[in-house]
Design brief:
The chain is mostly helical. It has one domain. The chain is about 65% helix and about 5% strand. The strands form two sheets. Strands 1-2 form a two-stranded antiparallel ribbon. A two-stranded antiparallel sheet has the order 3-4. Helix 4 packs across helix 11 and helix 17 runs antiparallel to helix 18. The radius of gyration is 21 Å and the shape is globular. The two termini are about 35 Å apart.
């Protein structure tokens, strides 16, 4: 990144420059964000609209100091799906609202007692691998097919999928290090365009959804209803979102070179994240979370401006109302999206390793070596801890293991027990 011009958080960008930068963020989040409503069989328009509104509220609440795009959270899939099957969609939304309320209460606790405890219970030897897991546990998604991954695995893999993936990835990788000037800050958008054109040449793009789409559409609103057992089924997701949020804020802080946990403060960002979740659940969308894909875009491009993120949020809202535009984005093959996320998820993983380097973690100490090792294995082993309808695995499980080790070693230190 040393050879690129950094566009900092508070910098203003001319509209004609901002537009493609914002579009780049929309493409990065679109596939994953609409996949969640597709799984639930609900209107993607209301989800895109609430994602955009939630992002704008996040920027407002954090005083424009924390660049983040809020998209659909995958953590809700299992418990919300269970409640939808047993109680109905509206009661599942009530559970999403409760998760948001729990998160806002947590924000109040953090405001009262501060965030210094994070370095105590999650020291760098644990936080580094936890942040790395945010990207590494998603790595397989890039190549396992579907709407957000390249079809490179198994007997169904095809030469055309491999070609589209390779073209997209090559432009993203070499564009990130070779493009100059304005192209140097939109390598992912250029990669998407090149990959899409390649997919068209291979006959992989179906334009019928664009031709059949209505010019204007209206998102489908559904008001939440509340039932205590149904809400409690979804409630454990609050733990997942809190862990994910802290990890995202730490990795974003490393990327932008500012301590976002202190300014604007973890209490503001975690409140904003969960307020968006509660609002989305109230009106028929799914719970939201800060998106690793967009963090990866910032890491690759060096563009951190919240104005660009706000532009992406506005575009997301517009897509919810303009049928052909939404249809156009939905025609992008997963092989193209996979070529981009293949790089993005790796960048997030590298950011976790950067924490270990920047904080000069001493692996001559057994406690650091053990902590990092167990966190990595817990997050990458595929092990799942079931809490009711919520499965804790991947980065969240790694964070719980790291938290446990951090607390135990802190107690050892206070008791004077020698832990090398």
């Amino acid at each position: 990144m040393s050879g690129k011009k950094i566009i900092q958080i508070d910098e203003k960008v001319p509209f004609l420059t901002m537009l493609p930068l914002s579009v780049q963020h929309v493409f990065a989040m679109f596939g994953a964000s609409v996949l969640v409503p597709i799984i639930f069989g609900i209107d993607a328009g209301i989800v895109l609209m609430m994602n955009g509104i939630g992002t704008l509220l996040f920027i407002l609440i954090t005083k424009g100091k924390a660049p983040a795009f809020l998209g659909s959270s995958f953590a809700f899939i299992a418990p919300v799906g269970a409640v939808m099957a047993s109680h109905g969609r509206e009661y599942a939304q009530g559970g999403v609202v409760l998760v948001g309320v729990i998160g806002m209460v947590l924000a109040g606790i953090i405001y009262k007692f501060g965030s210094a405890w994070i370095d105590i219970v999650l020291p760098p030897a644990a936080m580094g691998p936890i942040v790395a897991l945010i990207g590494l546990e998603l790595a397989a998604v890039s190549v396992n097919g579907g709407p957000i991954g390249a079809n490179l695995m198994g007997e169904s893999a095809s030469a055309s999928s491999i070609a589209v993936f390779c073209v997209t990835l090559a432009v993203a990788v070499f564009g990130s290090v070779l493009f100059k000037g304005f192209l140097g800050v939109i390598p992912l958008l250029m990669a998407l365009i090149c990959g899409y054109i390649t997919a068209i040449c291979f006959g992989m793009v179906d334009f019928s959804p664009i031709l059949e789409a209505s010019l204007f559409t209206m998102p489908s609103f559904t008001i939440a209803r509340f039932d205590l057992p149904a809400m409690l089924t979804v409630a454990p997701v609050a733990l997942v979102l809190a862990t994910e949020h802290i990890g995202h804020q730490i990795v974003t802080s490393k990327i932008v070179g500012r301590d976002l946990l202190k300014d604007p403060g973890l209490h503001r960002s975690i409140f904003a994240d969960n307020f968006s979740t509660a609002l989305s659940g109230m009106f028929g969308a799914v719970g939201t979370t800060t998106y690793g894909e967009n963090i990866g875009v910032m890491a690759v491009t060096g563009v951190y401006s919240v104005q660009v993120i706000a532009g992406a949020a506005v575009i997301s809202i517009l897509i919810a109302f303009i049928g052909p535009l939404s249809a156009l984005i939905s025609t992008i093959p997963g092989d193209v999206i996979g070529g981009i996320t293949f790089l993005l998820y790796g960048m997030i993983g590298t950011s976790g390793l950067r924490i270990l380097v920047d904080r000069e973690v001493d692996y001559g100490k057994s406690r650091n070596l053990v902590m990092t090792s167990v966190v990595f294995v817990a997050g990458l082993s595929g092990l799942t801890l079931n809490l009711g309808q919520v499965g804790i695995s991947g980065m969240t499980l790694g964070a719980l293991v790291g938290l446990l080790f951090g607390i135990v070693f802190y107690i050892f230190d206070k008791l004077g027990v020698k832990a090398q």
